[in-house]
Every structure is written in structure tokens, then in C-alpha cells.
Amino acid sequence: MKKVLVLEDESSIRSFIVINLRRAGYEVVEAETGEEALEKLQEHRDVRVALLDIMLPGIDGFEVCRRIRATNTKIGIIMLTARSQEMDKVTGLMTGADDYVTKPFSPAELTARVDALMRRSGGAAEETSGELRQDPFLLNTRNRTLEKNGQRIKLTQMEYSIMRMFMENPGKALSREEILDLVWGRDYFGELKIVDVNIRRLRLKIEDNPTNPTYITTVWGYGYKWGF
Ligand code: CA
Fold first, then answer.
1. 33 alpha carbon – ligand 1 mean position (Å)
2. Up-side HSE of residue 201: CA atoms within 13 Å toward CB?
3. How far is the centre of ligand 1, averaged over its atoms, from the C-alpha of 182 (Å)?
4. What is the pTM of this model?
């Protein structure tokens, strides 16, 4: 079941999104407020991607994102931002969202983003099973979990995919375009900046000193390297 939650208080925008997602084959759960979205997620535990508007009456989309992430790292989260809210995009990603879409967006753009996250939210079968060990890290590709020195680090699905890509390519400089292709998929419409924002967040979780990263190193003017 491909189920998506749509949180948007403006009914015209919500209907536009719902109609297009249904047309693309998704089952849609609708919510008008953040509180309602959190309740619906309790009822519909099989929702795999949530679209969250930011400006809402009551709690805002960031707070909804934070509350979802407190208990659920598996669900894919896309923030719906207005064109003028540049900082909101970054803030949204830092609170645990995987992606953002800027209003107004086309139906094709929206469904491509949802499709991309759906593939990574446990929908696609994991082809391999086992472990990738590079001390102090242990990545379990069956459970999609990461440990550092035996301590579990909670990752979102995107962060997990990035970690796995790095651990499968040790010592190799990867361009931001390559990372976008490998992690988000070739049909992804998004901007390169999303790579930087996700890596910044991942560094906060895995580096000993995130301001002086030693595991994920920057290759200036190019991209990143899993470097030891
Ligand atoms: Ca709104």
C-alpha cells in the first residue's frame, strides 16, 4: 500500500495535491492542522511519506516534523514551502525533513519527489543483507541501522542512504551531482543544496567534532569523501 499523508490548511492547495497524488496511484490521508495530522498518523501507521505545509493554524509544520521524527525515523517527510521562505527550507531539513517542495509546484514535480522518497522509505526491497563495518562504524543493511562504537545512532532513511553510499565508496571523492544521483535517484528534480544540508545534519550525528569533520570530509569545489 502506497499511502501518503497531506497536511495543508488551504483547501484549494490540498485538493490539488490530493487529486494529483491519487492520479499517480497513491492512497491519500488528508489533514488540515498539525494536530489532526499527528492523530491521523496514529490511525494510519502504514503512511510512508508525509507532505507538511509549514504555515498552519496551531502548531506549525516544523513542530509536526519534529514530533513525527521523535518516534518515527522511517517515514519520508517533504516540507511544502513558499517561495520567499528560503530559510524555512534549511530549518525544515534540520528538524528532520528529507526534502522540500516550493509552492507553486507542478503535479509532475510533486509526484517525482514523493516517488523518490517512497522508494527509500522501505518500499523498495533491500537487495542485500548483512553488515558494513568500518571502525568505529557498523552499518547493518538488513535493519538499516547504524552504530558508532556500539552505540545506536538514529538516522532518517535519507541519512541512512547517504551513510551507506559513503561506506560503499571509502576514500573516493564523490561529486555533489553523483551523490544526488546515487541517493535521490536520477529522476530527482531537486537542487544540489539538499546534498549539503543533509550532509551537514549527518555530520552532527556521526562526527566526533562536527565543526572539524574527519569522517565525511569536504572536497572543495567538488563534493565529499568518506575519508579515513
Ligand atoms: Ca498554510
1. 9
2. 23
3. 33
4. 0.63
Interatomic CA distance for residues 19 and 2, integer angstroms: 15
**Centroid of ligand 1 to alpha carbon of 208 (angstroms):** 38
Angle at 43 between CA 38 and CA 47, to 5 degrees: 75
Q: How many residues does the chain have?
A: 228
Ligand 1 centroid – CA 228 distance (Å)? 45
The whole-angstrom separation of Cα 177 and Cα 166 is 14
Tell me the C-alpha distance between 119 and 212, whole Å.
33
Q: In b/e form, how buried is each residue of 86-97, taking b as 16+ CB within 10 angstroms?
A: eebbbbbbebbb
Contact 129, 140 (CB under 8 A): no
pLDDT in tens, 95-142: 888 888 888 888 888 998 998 888 776 544 444 457 888 889 999 988
What is the 131 CA–ligand 1 centroid distance (Å)?
Answer: 43
49 in Cβ contact with 96 (< 8 Å): no
Whole-number Å distance, alpha carbon 14 to ligand 1 midpoint, is 10
